[in-house]
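note to self — DONT lose this again. spent like an hour looking for the file last time. sequence + predicted structure for the chain T wanted, 156 res
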Amino acid sequence: MLLASGAAVADFIQCRDFPDGDFQSVQVDNGLLSQSFLSTLQFDENGQTGAICGAHLYRVSESGKFIRAFNYDSGPDYFTEAEGLARYVADDGLVGFVDIDLDIVIPAQFLCARPFQEGKALVSLLEDGTERNAVVYPDGRISFETPQYALCVSKP
């Protein structure tokens, strides 16, 4: 599977621009998407865009770095204004948070995670085999305090 740091040297995957575009074989070299593919994409003011690679939506930077995006409102999750963090999804389906450079700030460990709001994000995680709600702070600290806003549930 692909993560920004996990791709092998000179792998090829099928990618297309998000939301439209034709799939093409894209080279992944040392964890970065090829410049020839990047040149076909339109980047936002933060130097990022979305691309579908294989069966997943990825957040892609102009440098070619990419990470599987948390799909929110028919596109990659947004970066919160105050914290500058967005959710990402690891290969095992757990959710974590990345910064604007697509560096992992809070590793994927949550079954469910809401965006940051007022300096914390509501999450759920397994503790001793039981799913528990908690809050996580931008520095990665987790607190099992009773949240003041909507619950995060990983399963309906």
